[in-house]
Every structure is written in C-alpha cells, then in structure tokens.
Specification:
- It is built from three helices and two strands.
- A two-stranded parallel ribbon has the order 1-2.
Amino acid sequence: MALTGAIQQMAATLQQRVQQPVQIWLNGGDAEMLLPHLSLPTRLEDNLVLTGLHFIAQEVFA
C-alpha cells in the first residue's frame, strides 16, 4: 500500500532528524484501514483537529 509506505518513510525521516522515537497519529476516513499496516507505534485520534485547537486555545487564553 503506497500510502502506508509514504507515512512510514516520513516518520523515519523525522525520527532520524530528531534522534528519538516518533509516534504516528492518524485520523480521518481511512485511518482504521491504514492502522494495521503500519509497523511504527500508531495512535488513532478521532478528533485530532479539535484536540489541536483545544491545546492552542489553552496556550493563547491561559
């Protein structure tokens, strides 16, 4: 599956750049289909965008 290869390659590049393990976060319509095909630690986050906006709001309005 080309998409899983691209995800894993990007994660490997990031891991090499930061010199520490990375975790993949997935969301969206195909996330559940991709999850079993990824060999790196992966987290399925249904509300990733809303969670990110929540963290940003906490930083801005804290």
